[in-house]
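Database export, one record per block. Field names are fixed; values are copied verbatim from the stored entry.
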Amino acid sequence: MPHILILEDEPSIAESLIFVLQAESFAVHWESLATKALAHAQSQPVDLIIMDVGLPDMTGFEACKQLRKFSEVPVMFLTARGDELDRVVGLEIGADDYVVKPFSPREVAARVKAILKRTRPIAALLEKQPAQENLREFVIDAERKTIHYHQQLLQLTRFEFCLLQTLLEQPERVFSRDQLLNAVGVSADAGYDRSIDGHIKTLRAKLRAINANADPIKTQRGFGYSYQPEA
């Protein structure tokens, strides 16, 4: 039975989510403070966290940053703010989905099931892969979720790690924006396809800071992006 942690300070919203999720056979735990939710996530197995952005003790964005220091559990943000910038920030710090209030609890439950369907097979696959995978100039450590480039550790967000790993594992394959979103566990119909461009730009800057003469991530105009190994 998947375990869902809800971090929401409005009891009426939390109760409606608990009712719908339990009806879908999820085990649900509710906290109204980020500090208590983070402590629970550290001490108990959690399959997904539904996290409000506006919380009494810290923002959901800050809570997600702290969570990512010890866990890669999927996160769905709930927020009254629907600005594109807020959605992009949420994805950049490691969120898997972003739902704007008011929302249908049943839609949230459907999104939870979709995220778990995408992320659980990926997690199982990573467990079967070698701990480290050498790709010439890159070294991927699947267990520690790290990537080294020319023997230097890249400081990556969860989204950037998954995006770069997807490109590296299939050299020269051209991925569309929608394919990259699906590969990192974000629904392609969520409207974030152009955010891929921003993440690619950030990744390129981090790679060039190590090797200014190389450009391993290629833009395939009209199609998407690919990884071209260095000669």
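Remark 1: The radius of gyration is 18 Å.
Remark 2: Residues 121-131 have pLDDT under 50 and may be disordered.
End of record.
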